[in-house]
# Entry
Amino acid sequence: MHAGLPGPFADLSYPLVVTADEWILHGFSSPNHLTELGQMAQSHIYLKSTLDDAMRDAFRKTRRFLMTVKGLREDEAVTLISVAVDFGITQVVNGNWGVHAIIRKALFARS
# Structure
């Protein structure tokens, strides 16, 4: 958690990249693998990681972000994720596979 962030970002516990046009949230197959897997985490993560877990983590974080930060109801957040959020592979290098979600800020621009 990061107490220095304002309002809805105060309990942010995962990587968030903010650009002029997008919010990019990151999910991992094991969000805290160094703590979860102990001393052998760097080698055991290869046995545990799946892209399915990373995607599930990215989806949950994206849904929570849209509901908390943008004030959407759960059904609205899931619908938006289904039709307008782009997901991609962030990393597979260190065994803790990652998926990122890209939310375009233009989706929330008022006309």
